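Q: Hi! First time doing this. I have a protein sequence and I read that you can turn it into a structure. Is that right? Here it is:
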Amino acid sequence: METAEERLRVVLHLTDSIIFEFDAEGRYLTAWTRSDELLAKPREELLGRPLSEVVDPHVSALFMASIQRVLEREQPERFEYSLEMAGGRRWFSADAMLVPQRKSVAYLIRDITQQKTLELRLLQADRLTALGTLAAGVAHEVNNPLGYLSSNLNFVAEGLAEVRQALAGATGVPELARLESTLKECEEALSEAQQGTSRIREVVGHLKTFARGDDTGAEQRADVRRAMELSIRMVLPELRHRARLLWEPVEVPLVRGNEAYLEQVFLNLLLNAAQAIPEGAPGENSVEARVRAEGGKVVIEIQDTGEGIPPENLKRIFDPFFTTRPVGVGAGLGLAICHGLVTTMQGELTVESTVGKGTCFRVLLPTADT
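A: Yes, that's right. Below is the predicted 3D structure, encoded as C-alpha cells:
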C-alpha cells in the first residue's frame, strides 16, 4: 500500500490533478495533490470537514448529490463545475468512483479552464462572425437608398427656400397666406425627414461599429456611457413593446477595458432584461439602466421588472449552455460570454433576483486611472 501511494504521489506531482475522498456525509477523508496551492484550503484544514464548510453551496450540493448516486448505484460518473478562485473563475471536471470495501467515494479533479475558455472563444467568434455578416449586409442595403434620399431632401429644402424668397418680394399673388402656410408645413416636414435620415445614418454607423468590433484586447480606455447608449439604441426595437426604458446619462470616468466588449455585455444584459418581460403591457413594466462612480470603480446596473430567476437557477446562470428558454430560443451562452468579457477587463459581474419582482445585473469595472 505504501508503494502504491508513493507511485500515486509521483504521478500527481507531474500533473495539476487532485484526488479527494469523501464519506457518505461529504466529509473530506483524503486530499492528494502536488501542491496545496491547488486546494481551496490547506490540506490539514480540509480533512474531517464537510464540503459545505469549504466550497460554495452550489458546488457542495453537486458533490453531495454525486456522492449519493455513486454509493447507491456503485457506478462511476463525471460532471463539471466552476469555482471563484483568487485569480478568477476556474472550471474543473470531477470523475467519481466508489472506493472498494469502504463506504466512500473518490474523485479525480482536473482543471479544464483553458479548454472551457477556448470553447467559449470559438463559439463567441462564430456568433459574432454571423452577426457581423448580417449587420454589414443590412448596413450596405440601407446606405444605398439613404444616400440619394438625403441628397433629394436637401435639394427640395433649397428649392423651397428659393420659393419663399420669391414670395417674400411678390405682391398681388392669389392665396398668398395659404401658400405661406403650406410652405411652412413643407419646411417642417422636410426638417423631420432630414432628422430621420440623420438618425438612420447614425443607427447604421452604430450597427457597422458593433459588427466590426475591436479585438485588440481589454487594456484600453473605454467610455461606459457611450457603450451603453449604443447598446440601448440597438435594443429599443425589442424593448419598446415590453417595457419603458429608464436611462439618465451620467458622466463617469473612463474605465480600463474594451468598448466593443462593453457594448456586447450591455446588449446581452439589456436583451435578457427585455425578454424577461412579456409583450403587451409596456406601461406597467420597466428596464432601468444606471451608471455611477464609486470608490475607484464604475458601477453599471441593469434592472428589470420581469419574472425573476428562481434561486436554484441563480447559481448557474453564468454556466455555458445553461438556459431555461425553449429549444431554439437561447443557447445559454450570452451570460457566460458576458461573465468572461467582464472578467477579462478585470471587472466583476453579479446578479440579484426575486421571482415575480425582477432582476438586477451589476457590473463593476476599474477606472482607467486606478
